[in-house]
Amino acid sequence: MDTELIRRLGHVVGDAGLVLGEAEQAPYVEDWLRKWRGRTPVVVRPRNTTEVSAVMRLCRQTGTPVVPQGGNTGMSGGAAPDDSGAQVILSLNRMRRIREVDAVNNTITVDAGVLLADVQRAAREAGRFFPLSLGAEGSCTIGGNLATNAGGTAVLRYGNTRELALGLEVVLPDGRVWSGLRGLRKDNTGYDLRGLFIGSEGTLGVITGAVLKLYALARGRVTAWVGVDTPGAVVGLLSHMQALCGERLTAFEMMSAHCLDLVQAHVSGAVQPLDGRHRYYALVELSDTAPEALTELLEQGLAQAMEAGLADDAVIAASETQSQALWRLREGISQAQVRAGKAVKHDIALPISRLAAFIEEADAALAEDFAGLPIVNFGHVGDGNLHYNVLLPLDVAAAEYGRLTAALNRRVHDLVAQRGGSISAEHGVGQLRRDELRRYKSTVEMDLMLLIKRALDPDQLMNPGKLL
To answer: Residue ranges of the FAD-binding PCMH-type domain (predicted)?
Structure first.
């Protein structure tokens, strides 16, 4: 890269806004899973939208590719540069301003570099609740959540990130700024530009700010751990609890017995909450602003479910400490996988009515074609999102890992497509699923996405090699 461009970038963001040394750049050029590692001549860290706009104008003038980056916690390689050494990393990690909390309108306006945990904290301090919650919330940023349309554990009640955003501020590839920071729940004045940029993975522009929805702060919650025999019973239990509890049902997570075995073996302090072993487990949580009847409602729902054969056993947390212990079992699966082997991950979504049939069919297909490989099946059943992973040995050779990954992806994703599902539910496409996308999206869909990309980024400078 021309050193003159680096000098001009430094003039925009200041010396503190440039990261030049190889050691200093290391956290930016490799994704946190260590699957993708690239090179960059410079990491640029602007402080505000004006500086982002100036950076983008310079990169457009010089034909320099740009990789937008938030917390770099993605699962699909969407924020890692390639190894050409020609791509500038545009990090928003200095843009951490809470611009406004409007408790009357139930909105919060933030910079894109604000950590998710800090948005949650600012909402609580205002007596409100921001529901997006996921394992990386202490390190992921709102801009990254928006760019990938992140999901998490509360989608069942509140929706994913797209449903939680009312307005955006975006710097376009040519440096122009679209200021759409309107806290409106009704606005029928044209195309939904907000929805266009959410989930675009930095390929259309740089999200620099957002207006997000806030909700009333729940004053109580109650959590249960339920043993279930079949995938069909899991889905039946979900339907039963939804019918009985309505919007009080805020989380419904599922994990297989093998997942719990892994957590108990590899996560310190993990204890099986039930006496017997069950094929599947559901973590069910109710919350409300009026908490008095929650425990009674949950007890009633679980008793009815057991009478109907939808559940075999259950325990209800008697304290916040016990509730957190149940959640740690669910949240410990990712850590346990890393310690137990090398996972081939499938972040998939299906219509909830087709989940059970998919699980039974996929389990049988993999048992036949990939005998002996354990399946790590867990996910957010309440919104149809499964993490249907397959565990390979820690010492598997790189070539064999690549071969099995391709074969497993094809087998699992073909079954997902046959049942009207998606091969990426909440982690994004990035580099991981880019080449598979054409197999599972129609020609019309791909053509429309490419037309939009060319219209907004005709020079193909925004996050090249990702998504499309």
So the answer is: 36-217
